[in-house]
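(Structure overview)
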Amino acid sequence: MMFHKPKKNRCPRVNRILISIAFMGSAGPIRLVVDETDPVDAVILTALKSYRREGRLPILGSNFEDFLLYYGSDVTDTLCPHRIAALSPWDTIGSQGSRNFLLCKKPQVDQRTADAGRKSAAVSHGKGSRTWKKWIKKSFSRRISSH
């Protein structure tokens, strides 16, 4: 008769999943095995490390805070990812119900555009408005010659 020893405090079983992350502008997706309970920001960091290790192009930064992870359900989502909401960095990757994702850089606000907006607002008041009006009249008065 054999006696079975009770198993001592083993780690609870971790559910690992295979996910596919496509990078905007890259040739193909990267496949990673991750834990279901991993947060989205940790998965982004792991994906960026794997992308850099494989030597893929275009070269991306290593700061995971500059990227957003999108739920990639079909082709239309990958063509225009900013129509859909990005995943929260604190969500777990297993709670999304999908295994396909798209990683994109966050949209950057151009500092020159923001400065130009402030300058145009300053020009439109008071004495500077005459200069602005002259510029508009001049731009509309130009004629485009036809063939």
User: Anything to note?
Assistant: The mean pLDDT is 75. Residues 3 and 9 are 19 Å apart (CA to CA).
